Amino acid sequence: MSNRVPIAFILLTRDEEVNIPHALRSTLDWAEQVFVVDSGSTDRTREITESLGATFVSHAWEGYARQKNWALDNLPIRTPWVFILDADEAVTDELREELTRVATADNCRENGFYVNRRLIFLGRWIRHCGYYPSWNIRFFRRGKARYADRSVHEHMVVEGSVGYLVNAMQHEDRRGLSHFIVKHNWYSTLEAQEAMRLEQSEDYSQKVRLIGGGSVERRRWLKRYVWPWLPLRWLARFVSMYILKLGFMDGWVGLHFCSLLAIYEYEIFLKTYELHLEKQRRLKEARRARQQATPQAGQS
Question: Domain end: 171, 205, 230, which one?
Answer without folding.
Answer: 171
